[in-house]
Amino acid sequence: MQYYQHRFDGVENYLHHRSPYLMIEKIVSIQSTEITTEKTVSGDEFFMKGHFPGAPIFPGAMLQELTTQSAAILIAAEYNPMKEFNTEDPFFNEYALGVLVKVKRARFRGFARPGENLTVNIVLNDHLNDIFDFSATVSKDGQRIMRNGFQLMNIKSSVLQGSGQGRATNWK
Questions:
Q1: What structural domains does the chain harbor?
Q2: What secondary structure letter does DSSP report for 73?
Q3: Which of 17, 59, 60, 62 could join 22 in a cystine, given CB atoms 3.0 to 4.6 angstroms apart?
Q4: Other beta carbons within 10 Å of 123
Q5: Which pLDDT tens digit goes with each residue over 105-163?
Q6: pTM of the model
Q7: 171: number of CA atoms within 13 Å, CB side?
Q8: 3-state secondary structure (DSSP) of residue 143
Q9: For the CA atoms of the chain, what is the radius of gyration?
Q10: Residue 47, preceding peptide bond in cis (omega within 30° of 0)
């Protein structure tokens, strides 16, 4: 498959995610097989109110999402099967890029609290056709608080929109 490289000014130009679910605030660097992004935990995130009252902690599931969104930006930037790519129109693109299909492992070694800056480092280990294998770390103040491995896949947008078959075996 042919891939196209794209560079955009804003995070939202790489991802279809929008507030309040768009997690990435800043792209620090993009290389062919690596990306570094950042997010500052504000405490105002929609999920923080209940996790946990009186002791707000950024949820582990959202740390996973933070790594997934960062990896999807790398796919959109470096391994995009579309010459033209537009995240403003949900029906424009032939493919949905970076859909999570497998979490292989996750290890948590600390917490993220309001006011803390998170740095996400993603490495593309391998890719075969439209399946991309990643490893990731999330750090604060230079200390790793999470590491994980996961796979993302580019699927036909029609599947994501519900007009195609929803089983993973039919996602191509």
A1: 11-170 (3.10.129.10)
A2: H
A3: 17
A4: 16
A5: 999 999 999 999 999 999 999 999 999 999 999 999 999 999 999 999 999 998 888 87
A6: 0.93
A7: 18
A8: strand
A9: 16
A10: no
